[in-house]
Every structure is written in structure tokens, then in C-alpha cells.
Amino acid sequence: MATVTYDHTSRFYPGSDVPAVDRLNLDIGDGEFLVLVGPSGCGKSTSLRMLAGLEDVDEGAVRIGDRDVTSMPPGRRDIAMVFQSYALYPHMTVAQNMAFALEMAKVPKSERGARVREAAQILDLMPYLDRKPKALSGGQRQRVAMGRAIVRQPKVFLMDEPLSNLDAKLRVATRSQIAALQNRLGITTVYVTHDQVEAMTMGDRVAVLKDGVLLQCDTPLALYRRPANAFVAGFIGSPAMNIREFEVAKGHARVGDVDVPLPREELAGLAREGSDSVLLGFRPESVDLVGSEEGFPVVVRLVEELGADAYLYGSIVGADPTDSPDIVARVDPDRTPRIGETVHLRVRPGQEHTFSPK
Ligand code: ATP
User: Quick one: a GO cellular component term (predicted)?
Assistant: First the structure.
């Protein structure tokens, strides 16, 4: 069983008393595709590198299956890593690049050849086996890097932003290839990216990190529907969720000139904290344009037409425009409002999110 466990795992870089990764607890299932995502510097690569054995663990433990690998050298962990840079050997052919680690591991020559051919078939690399990396496209090089990992038949794949050197279109195509390949091979995979769309489309579960702390780990849909806090809410989804702090009075949040009722549990929580404001969030796709009686008024500043969708950007009437960025709302591309017009928006019942400002 190739489960992966981070057990209160921390890393302090020399000279720093702030942990780059702070008591990470995470159980990754056998065969699971787990994505670590978060903004630059949140500790994704450090977490991955501790699992790979490329970075010291200062507190806690890392386990693969029932083996404690916390202090085990990388070569004995039965993992294969795909880096952002691919790190292919330029003087070797594709076949030699793929076979190299097997040669080091003293795998017999006939078996090496068979494993390389099998991986090359899976990855559509058969026509390129005799080429050097410089004679390959970016996407082909990326596949060779994958091939090198596959031939080793590891217990766990580790991937650190493996698509970041590809152009946008190829990245989209390759991410579905990698997800399909992982599914087919069934090898436990830990994948690092800063791109939330990549995370959401590839992961069985997605772990969101910020400042070295794991904020939430769940399925893509659960993260989208039930974000645990305002950071996850704003990070997952594009365009981002609208989140604003509003005054609370008499059980309602005051949104511009309109009072939005708040759920009772939320009010109880705010009262306990002594807070008289609330962070109210709603996704651009969770609002409807309605008549003036039914919604809160927004002055349209910009309309973005993307073909299948259109988004309006505008400010809530009555809100202070200097400290209140635009509200974003998805609208019908066939009935977009005019710039300067005042429209009324209503958040679909049950699709609002509330967070404590604390
Ligand atoms: P990115 O997406 O930019 O690669 P990341 O989420 O992978 O970021 P890490 O590379 O894990 O983040 O870095 C986490 C924190 O540790 C950051 O504050 C970073 O500055 C710090 N850090 C990373 N490597 C070192 C190092 N070798 N020495 C000291 N500090 C480091």
C-alpha cells in the first residue's frame, strides 16, 4: 500500500524561526492524486521535497505506506519525481534518458528495454526514442520526463509544477493526459502547482496551503461549495468570489442600501466574538439580475464579453468606492447591461457564504 502520511511535519530553514511548513497533517490514500496548491512561498515545494527526502524534516514524520521515511535517503524511498525543469540529460537520447535510472539500479538490459518501450508507447514517444532532447518540442520533453518517472515503477510519483514550461494550450492538453495516465497507472501522486484551475481539474483532492499552514484539504467540488475560510473561498474559483466586509445590524448585513438576512448560526458566532461586521461572499456565477425591488443596486463600470459568458464589474451603490473593489457578476451574454447603468443583483438563496472577519 502506497499511502503517504505527513504527521505534524514541520520545516524551519536555517536562520529562520518561522516555519516554511508548519505541522502539516495529511493522509494521502493509495492511488490518490493529491494536489498541493497555494500562492508563491506557501510551502508547497518544501512539503514535496520533504517527502522526496531532498529537504530535512525538523519536526514530525513522513511515512510512505507503513515505512517511516523521515530520515531515509531519497534513493531508498521508492519514489520518482518530475521537476519543472525536466532535467533531461542533453547528451543522451530519449531512450537512454528513460533507461538511465534503471541502469543505475542494475535492472537487466532486456527488462530496461521492455520498460522503456512500454512507457514510450503509453506516452506516444516511440518515434522519438533515438532523438536527443534538443530535437524535441516542449511537450515531448515533458513526456520524456514523465517517461523517466514511469519506467521506475515507483510507489509514489512526485511532481513539482511539471507543466509550467509549456504554453497555455499545451498545458491544458497535457494536464488531462497526466490525470488520465495517473488514473490508468493507479500510482499515488503528489502534485504541486500554484494554479488553482490545474489543481481543481487534476486532483482527486486538493490541499490548500498558505504561509506554511494547511487550510483545507477536500475534493475540488467541496472546496468550491464549502470553503473553510475566506482565503480558500477567494483562492478557488475564477473569477474570484466577491468577498466584502459588511456591517451587521438586527440580524442583517447592510449591503449598500439593502439588508441581507444572515443565518442564525452565523449571527451567534459573530455575537460570541463581539464582532459587528461580517465577511459576506458570493461567486460571480451565483447572482442574478433582478428587478429593483429584489436586489441590491450596482453601477456597471465594465462589461467583459468572453463569448460563452459575460461578466459585469461594478460598484455597490452606497458602498465607499475607495475601499471597495468591483463586484463581479456573470450575466447573460445576450443581455449585457450598458456601462454606467444601475442594475440590481440578487445572490441566489443558499449560495452566499459568510466568514468571520476574525
Ligand atoms: P513557489 O510557488 O514560489 O515555488 P512554494 O509554495 O513552493 O513557492 P517553498 O519553496 O516551499 O514555497 O517556500 C516556502 C518558504 O520557505 C518561503 O517563504 C521561502 O522563501 C522559504 N524557503 C524556501 N527554500 C528556502 C531555502 N533553501 N532557504 C531558506 N528559505 C527557503
Answer: ATP-binding cassette (ABC) transporter complex, substrate-binding subunit-containing
Q: Is 110 in the pocket of ligand 1 (CB under 6 A)?
A: no
CATH superfamily assigned to domain 242-355 = Nucleic acid-binding proteins (2.40.50.140)
For the chain, what is the total number of helices (H) and then of strands (E)? 9, 20
Domain ranges of the chain: 4-235, 242-355
Q: Which CATH number fits domain 4-235: 3.40.50.150, 3.90.1170.40, 3.40.50.300, 3.10.50.30?
A: 3.40.50.300
Q: Which of 40, 46, 235 maximizes ligand 1 atoms within 8 Å of its Cβ, making it the mutation to test the pocket?
A: 46
Structural contact between residues 199 and 238, judged by C-beta atoms closer than 8 angstroms:
no
Average pLDDT on 178-183 reads 90
Over residues 101-143, the pLDDT tens digits come to 899 888 899 999 999 998 898 888 999 999 999 999 888 998 9
- Please give the number of the atom of ligand 1 that sits closest to the Cα of 11: 16
Residue closest via CA to ligand 1's atom 2 equals 40
Confidence of residue 324 (pLDDT cuts 50, 70, 90): low
Q: Contact 153/115 with Cβ under 8 angstroms?
A: yes
Q: Are 45 and 93 in contact (CB under 8 A)?
A: no
Ligand 1 pocket, residue 132 CB under 6 Å: no
Which residue type sits at 312? L
Give the residue whose CA is nearest to atom 31 of ligand 1: 13
Single-letter amino acid, residue 154: P
Residue 95 parent element (H or E): helix 94-104
Ligand 1 geometric centre to CA of 204 (Å) = 25
45 lines ligand 1 (CB under 6 A): yes
Q: Return the ∠ at Cα 87 (arms to 85 and 91), rounded to 5°.
A: 135
**Residue whose CA is at the smallest distance from ligand 1 atom 3:** 40
Could you check whether 4-235 and 242-355 share the same CATH topology?
no
pLDDT for the residue numbered 322: 63
Residue 27 to residue 4: CA distance in whole angstroms = 6
- For ligand 1, say whether the CB of 188 is within 6 Å of any of its atoms: no
